[in-house]
Amino acid sequence: MKKKPLIIVGIAYAVAIASLATTNLLHNFFGINGVAEHKIDDDPFSSFDVSTPSSSSKPSASSKPSSSSKASEETSSSTNELPDRVANTDPSPYTETTLTYTRYNTQTYDPDGEAVDSHGNPITFYTLEVKIKKITDFRTNQVTDANGYPGDNCLNTLFNQVSEVEKKYNVDVMGAINGDSSYNNLDHRLGYVLRNGQVLRSQYRTGVDSVFEDLVLWNDGTMSVYTEPGFTGTLRNSSIPTYSTDYLTRNKAWQVWTFGPTLIDNGAICVNDDEDVASPHQSGNQRTAIGYIGPYHYIFFVSQGRSKPDKSDGFSLQEVATKLLARGCTLAYNLDGGDSSTLYAIWDNSTKKFPSKTSPRKIGDMIYVVDA
């Protein structure tokens, strides 16, 4: 009689193990939307190789397949055409990681009269100027399921994500913004996902899903843009190369974002006055963007919009680009905006949040900074 409970427990345990194994197989071979996904490492920050890769020549653009080519997982053979990149060998000039929070508002602080949209309506926006002492202080978080895999339905608020990573890694988050929604945006269900040095999705976008470039943060603190092999858009700069995930990992990419478009490249604004993510002639929106000033030096940008207090639709992409250019950015990139735009910062011994409501939209990923 006593053996029955043990048998039941044993069967339940076997079923649980089989279920976990099946989940792993489904993710690894079929993934989300038929794309192979990879489980996130428990602690990528201690295992990532931050040494500078050796190279002797600059990257060049490789050939691209036609727009009718089927999206496929990259293989190392396609990267043999590209020489390794010339990495920055200078160490970070900053002895500590710092973050400077600024809130621009017509009623409180707006020295250059920037806190208005193209129609003259007041609008509040925020910047976090970030300087990091080492690349692993610049982190991303991808929400996962119970088995450690990212996916379409893996969502949480940015504020909850902050609390979770602080507990998991025993760190204090200095500042955070939303990311590119690489799993949850309907227009970005494919495309590379590389987070904290780990490739989570290596299947590239094709056709209408590949109209914008990707942004990469390398382990040497520099940023650049590139295209995936299925890119069908118009290059904003003829020298933009095409990379595979094998190339990115071999040259030690630390983060990759796949939203866009590129706002500034080589110190010049490269979006026009009516360009937008979903459709042209959109007057404005809430925005999130990231700007690159130099190695280990960045700007996080978040703006309000479509809100009653400001009575403004928000900024256009060109307006965001103008503000980031004024702050010394030589490269800038648009991230997920609208109701996904979220900001968190610890500044002047207090917590700064946008939106201020306690339950903002749940999102799939965030970008954050620590001093670890």
Question: How would you explain this protein's 3D organization?
Answer:
The structure is a single chain. The chain has 372 residues and is α+β, with helices and mostly antiparallel strands. The chain has two domains: 1-30; 40-370, no CATH class. Helix content is 16%, strand content 23%. The protein has five helices and 17 strands. The strands form four sheets. A seven-stranded antiparallel sheet has the order 1-2-13-12-14-10-11, with helices on one face. Strands 3-17-4-15-16 form a five-stranded antiparallel sheet, covered by helices on one side. Strand 10 (262-265) and strand 11 (268-269) form a beta hairpin. The radius of gyration is 21 Å and the shape is globular.
At a glance:
The protein has 372 residues and is α+β, with helices and mostly antiparallel strands. It has helices spanning 3-29, 44-47, 158-169, 245-250, 317-326; strands at 98-104, 125-131, 138-142, 173-178, 193-195, 198-201, 214-218, 223-226, 253-257, 262-265, 268-269, 287-294, 297-303, 331-334, 343-347, 350-354, 365-370.
Descriptive terms for the model:
single chain; 372 residues; alpha+beta; 2 domains; 23% strand; globular
Summarize the helices and strands and which ones pair or pack.
Layout lengths: L2 H27 L14 H4 L50 E7 L20 E7 L6 E5 L15 H12 L3 E6 L14 E3 L2 E4 L12 E5 L4 E4 L18 H6 L2 E5 L4 E4 L2 E2 L17 E8 L2 E7 L13 H10 L4 E4 L8 E5 L2 E5 L10 E6 L2
Antiparallel strand pairs: 1-2, 2-13, 3-17, 4-15, 4-17, 5-6, 7-8, 7-9, 10-11, 10-14, 12-13, 12-14, 15-16
